[in-house]
Design goal:
The complex is a heterotrimer of chains A (177), B (248) and C (352). With 177 residues, chain A is an alpha/beta fold. Chain A is 37% helix and 25% strand. Chain B has a single domain, classed as Thiamin diphosphate (ThDP)-binding fold, Pyr/PP domains (Rossmann fold). In chain B, helix 1 crosses helix 7 and helix 3 packs across helix 4. Chain B starts with 23 loop residues before the first helix and ends in a 6-residue tail after the last strand. With 352 residues, chain C is α/β, with parallel strands linked by helices. The chains are: A alpha/beta (177), B alpha/beta (248), C alpha/beta (352). The complex binds thiamine diphosphate, iron/sulfur cluster and magnesium ion. Iron/sulfur cluster binds next to helix 8 of chain B.
Chain lengths: 177, 248, 352
């Protein structure tokens, strides 16, 4: 059975929540069971944001993740806060342009990707989250590139659809790393 | 070298949690400076209300009481009646004071409670992510007026100073703003006078402070100040409404 | 059934209400349910409905009182502190037998508490948080799909019995996104509301909606009528999900989002050779007592798991009625019981 318990974490405004939505939506388009749960509250005040995404071939029992198969982090505090929740043999994908902290765990697979820098070079730093998702998809095969693209159409408001080709480019870039 | 600028004693040495460019922090500082200048920290009780400043009891050095949403003037009444020698101030937002707590503020003012209210009008519900406030301007877009505030559907914004001025118990009422240095100085003078009115046992006093909420207005801090100047001040004229010449 | 859409629980409540023909929403912002209001503010103008942001929850429930008196389907939503403010209106509307739906996306308390998920308003909802002998039907969905279906059903139950129906969720359900499949058409019962205060049009006696009966005999008679209605509901509207209970070593009882966590525990326990059953009350009132009685002799013990200090626990104990020992595991303050903690508790009880 394929099941991924994915935690995405960083600062508010980095597209943490929307990256999770795109992922969950893509899983749904592939007829998998999915859930998305954000951290919520007055955390917009410069605080951190995170979301839990479950994609599974069986009904999702709980949307709350205690043991993550994958952790994607876009800031230092989140790495420290969440690295212990990754299962043995799990994945940690880090935006190394933003996170200097080293991973303490020795029993997980770690990928450090300068996603923000790469996205900035592409001309839009907000694609950093997508580059990181690319790595996740390439590593786990949890969803296909096509479903990702399809999902973007659903999640992005129509006036932002012009961004889709570039986002797909960003995804491919992440996948190729 | 003499110190020319330091943290008022009445303000704790902790950093505040407000968003960048939010003027709640300035208003806190002004209150603290006034408490210092009047040398009343030891007998002042602040009432925190419910809004972004719900935990400003962590920022002041005087005693503080946290009240339920809208009920700060009632809680303040209780505190003051228990110990009339105390100086009591409430710190309330527009949702807190002019929506859910309308009854409490009107009746505290009507009774002439000897308390001081600092009413922070940012034309929005900051804490709960940007819904319409009673003071939201016509056409202003909020999360509960996605098509803009309309007179037909949502009625008119409430001008609190004007409204309360008709009550005999309210003896000092002034509207100020913290958009520039001059207005910040005026704001401090008004807050000081409001506290002095209370100290002189004259009756209820209120200072309305026009304030920014860059986060929920969707503006950067500079734009927010401009928006306040161009939209709020014309609708909420600054100045004294009552008690300008009150002897204190 | 249409296509699956990924939607937030709170927004689904709004959409479901609209589909149930509710065109009147009254509310006051409070986390973690405000998206219901945001959704209604956007959608109501599109369907010619009414969205009012009231000046307080006290006002909002009284607006519902008025709209329901006038005979329309009305909704208000809030979270714990706001629901406390509504208690007066809830009692009055119950006495006046007004049909309406109230959503409580519970947050942790008491007091201003916090904004994280909790189930600490169970007593308030099922035992009568306001004054007087009244009951509300209380529905506890555990998924976004169920939020949709039960919200539509809530309006039907309300109209059928002239009763308030509360939907009790928590921050997890309100905030999470899950696929939801809307039906092409909703089943909406149609009842003649000839009791409503909608104008005599000069062709009938005037209708009066009231909750005051100064004459004690009349007041008692009205109370008896209410009680008779409540027993009718208790015998016909119970909803419960029973899972894996045959031959269970232990039966766990949980409602709402906690029941989902328990389902994970069931598969974890299975790997260790422990058979765990689940009884999930979907109606918290009327409580599915008979389901507990039915299985009372099967397990070695019962365990209830809740995000509170042990509220439904008392009802489970009453239902099991001494036939087996009932244990409790709970977290409070916005803390969520983990699968491991629940499994550890089960092992401790079964001494394995
Ligand atoms: C009874 C009750 N209802 C609703 C809330 C949720 N709530 C918290 S703050 C707030 C609005 C605050 O707005 P305002 O007073 O303008 O303060 P600001 O955050 O803008 O400074 C609301 C509705 C609550 N805490 N209690
Ligand atoms: S949300 Fe608005 S009022 Fe609240 S702290 Fe931020 S800027 Fe200030
Ligand atoms: Mg405000």
């Amino acid at each position: 059975m394929i099941k991924q318990d994915i935690v995405i974490a960083g600062f508010g405004g980095q597209g943490i929540l929307s990256a999770g939505k795109v992922l969950a939506n893509a899983g749904m388009l592939e007829d998998k069971y999915v859930s998305w749960l954000p951290s919520y509250g007055p955390e917009m005040r410069g605080g951190t944001a995170n979301c839990h995404v479950v994609i599974s071939e069986e009904p999702v029992a709980s949307p709350i993740i205690n043991d993550a198969t994958t952790l994607i982090v876009m800031n230092g505090p989140s790495l420290e806060k969440f690295e212990d929740m990754v299962v043995e043999g799990g994945l940690i994908i880090i935006d190394s342009s933003l996170v200097e902290t080293e991973v303490k765990r020795k029993d997980v697979e770690v990928f450090r990707i300068p996603a923000s820098k790469m996205a900035d070079d592409m001309g839009n730093v907000t694609y950093a989250n997508i580059i990181l998702l690319g790595k996740l998809i390439a590593k786990t095969g949890i969803i296909s590139k096509d479903s990702f693209e399809e999902s973007l159409k659903k999640v992005l408001p129509a006036k932002k659809h012009y961004m889709i080709p570039e986002e797909v480019e960003a995804l491919k870039m992440g996948m190729s790393l | 070298m003499p110190t020319v600028f330091k943290r008022p004693h009445a303000l704790k040495e902790v950093s505040m949690h407000y968003c960048p460019g939010c003027t709640h922090g300035i208003i806190h500082r002004l209150i603290a400076e006034v408490i210092d200048e009047l040398d009343i920290e030891g007998k002042t009780i602040g009432i925190s209300s419910v809004g972004c400043t719900y935990n400003n009891y962590e920022y002041f050095n005087c005693d503080m009481v946290q009240a339920a949403h809208g009920r700060a003037p009632a809680v303040g009444t209780g505190v003051k009646r228990a110990n009339p020698d105390n100086v009591v101030f409430t710190y309330q937002g527009d949702g807190d004071l002019a929506a859910i707590g309308t009854a409490e503020i009107v009746h505290a003012a009507a009774r002439g409670e000897k308390i001081t209210t600092v009413f922070v009008n940012n034309a929005i519900y900051g804490m709960t992510s940007g819904q319409m406030a009673p003071t939201t301007l016509i056409n202003q877009v909020t999360t509960t007026t996605p098509y803009g505030r309309s007179v037909e559907k949502h009625g008119f914004p409430i001008r609190v100073c004007e409204l309360l001025s008709s009550l005999e118990g309210a003896v000092y009422i002034e509207r100020v703003s913290v958009n520039d240095i001059k207005n910040i100085k005026n704001a401090k003078q008004a807050i000081k006078k409001a506290f002095q009115v209370q100290l002189a046992n004259k009756g209820f006093s209120l200072v309305e402070v026009l304030s920014t909420c860059p986060t929920n207005w969707g503006l950067n801090p500079n734009e927010a100040i401009k928006w306040l100047e161009n939209n709020m001040i014309p609708h909420y004229p600054l100045g004294n409404f009552k008690g300008k010449d009150l002897e204190v | 059934m249409g296509e699956k859409i990924l939607m937030k629980g709170n927004e689904v409540i709004g959409e479901a209400a609209l589909r149930a023909g509710c065109k009147h929403y009254f509310g006051y912002p409070i986390t973690p349910q405000t998206e219901i209001a945001h959704y209604m503010a956007k959608r109501m103008p599109m369907v010619g409905g009414t969205f009012v942001q009231a000046e307080s929850e006290v006002a909002a429930i009284n607006m519902v009182y008025g709209a329901a008196s006038a005979g329309v389907r009305a909704l208000t939503s809030s979270s714990s502190p706001g629901i406390s403010l509504k208690q007066e209106g809830i009692s009055y509307a119950s006495c006046a037998e007004l049909p309406a739906v109230i959503v409580n996306i519970v947050r942790c308390g008491p007091g201003l508490g916090g904004i994280l998920p909790a189930q600490c308003d169970y007593f308030q909802a099922v035992k009568g948080g306001g004054h007087g002998d009244y009951k509300m039907v209380v529905l506890a969905p555990c998924s976004v799909q169920e939020l949709y279906e039960l919200t539509v059903e809530a309006f039907n139950i309300a109209d059928k019995y002239r009763i308030l129906v509360m939907i009790m969720g928590d921050g997890i359900l309100g905030q999470m996104m899950e696929p939801v499949e809307f039906k092409d058409k909703e089943e909406i019962i149609s009842v003649q509301k000839n009791w409503a205060a909608s104008g005599t049009k000069m062709n009938r006696e005037n209708n009066v909606i009231t909750s005051i009966y100064i004459d004690p005999e009349k007041m008692e008679k009205h109370n008896l009528k209410l009680q008779e209605k409540y027993s009718r509901i208790a015998s016909s509207e119970v909803k419960v999900e029973t899972y894996n209970c045959e031959n269970a070593d232990i039966i766990v009882s949980a409602f709402g989002s906690v029941a989902r966590i328990v389902k994970n525990v069931i598969s974890m326990a299975e790997k260790e050779g422990i058979k765990v059953g689940l009884i999930r009350p979907i109606t918290l009132w009327p409580f599915p007592e008979s389901e507990f009685l039915k299985y009372a002799d099967v397990p070695k013990a019962f365990l209830t798991v809740e995000m509170n200090a042990g509220q439904m626990f008392e009802d489970v104990k009453m239902a099991v009625n001494g036939r087996k020992k009932v244990y409790f595991h709970g977290r409070m303050g916005g803390m969520i019981p983990t699968q491991q903690d629940i499994l550890d508790k089960i092992k401790e009880i079964l001494k394995v």
